[in-house]
């Protein structure tokens, strides 16, 4: 586990640590930093020497073994590390409000989170799985410290891991021991969980799904300038004008979505 020397954020891997530094502290990467780990006060002239120090002194052998076995993080490319404002247009809080959370007035316990199995219908179970998966995916894409290619790869591997492996094994075991020939609610619930990530296997599916839920705030393109560039048109090189655009997200849209959340307006009116 890496700890950022400038903001003390805990980061799970070396690759993610470098991405975090480039995104959050790019101007400080070549400046002096101090080791934030307990009982260590060494200083370093840049973040790269600090990273080597952490690997040698503070990362345990167990953590190194786990990190080496995580092929997902090793295969992440750095081409998507430069995340612009265009990448942050998921209205994460708008999705969160779709979940019926009743734990605001009292602490959530295992009793409040886990209901008796006979009290959950197939329809309610499907709705619950859909909501929780949506929030999980939205939080991943909304985090500026995680490259979008990594999120897509992670979702694909998670889907393969438990959908095509664990759930399929449970379904086969359940079907082999089932006495009745009718499909019960439990069998339907297995299928719901198995297909939970179907709407998020690609980025286009994810954007389409959130757009249908009306929780996606897309950026708008605005032409701010133009430049002359040489292009081949019908086999002949010509000088044409190309628009220079920027992507913006309307603060009005963000505030509107925020104030539409349940009880938000009532909560801030008395401030």
UniProtKB/TrEMBL annotation:
It comes from Cardiocondyla obscurior. This is C2H2-type domain-containing protein. InterPro entries: Znf_C2H2_type (IPR013087). It comes from the Eukaryota. PROSITE patterns: ZINC_FINGER_C2H2_1. Residues 35-58 form the C2H2-type domain.
């Amino acid at each position: 586990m890496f700890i950022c020397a400038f903001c003390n954020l805990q980061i799970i891997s070396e690759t993610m640590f470098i991405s975090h530094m480039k995104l959050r502290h790019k101007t400080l990467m070549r400046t002096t930093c101090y080791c934030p780990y307990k009982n260590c006060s060494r200083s370093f002239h840049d973040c790269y020497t600090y990273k080597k120090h952490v690997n040698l002194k503070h990362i345990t052998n167990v953590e190194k073994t786990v990190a080496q076995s995580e092929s997902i993080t090793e295969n992440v490319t750095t081409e998507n590390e430069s995340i612009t404002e265009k990448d942050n247009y998921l209205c994460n809080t708008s999705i969160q409000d779709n979940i019926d959370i009743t734990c605001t007035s009292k602490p959530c316990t295992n009793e409040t989170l886990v209901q008796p199995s006979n009290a959950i219908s197939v329809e309610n179970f499907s709705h619950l799985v859909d909501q929780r998966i949506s929030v999980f995916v939205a939080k991943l894409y909304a985090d500026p410290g995680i490259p979008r290619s990594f999120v897509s790869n992670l979702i694909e591997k998670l889907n393969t891991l438990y959908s095509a492996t664990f759930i399929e094994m449970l379904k086969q075991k359940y079907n082999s021991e089932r006495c009745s020939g009718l499909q019960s609610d439990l069998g339907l619930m297995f299928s719901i969980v198995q297909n939970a990530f179907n709407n998020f296997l690609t980025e286009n599916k994810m954007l389409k799904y959130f757009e249908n839920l009306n929780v996606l705030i897309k950026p708008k393109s605005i032409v701010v300038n133009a430049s002359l560039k040489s292009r081949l048109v019908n086999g002949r090189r010509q000088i044409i004008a190309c628009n220079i655009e920027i992507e913006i997200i309307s603060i009005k849209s963000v505030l509107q979505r925020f104030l539409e959340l349940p009880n938000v307006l009532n909560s801030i009116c008395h401030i």
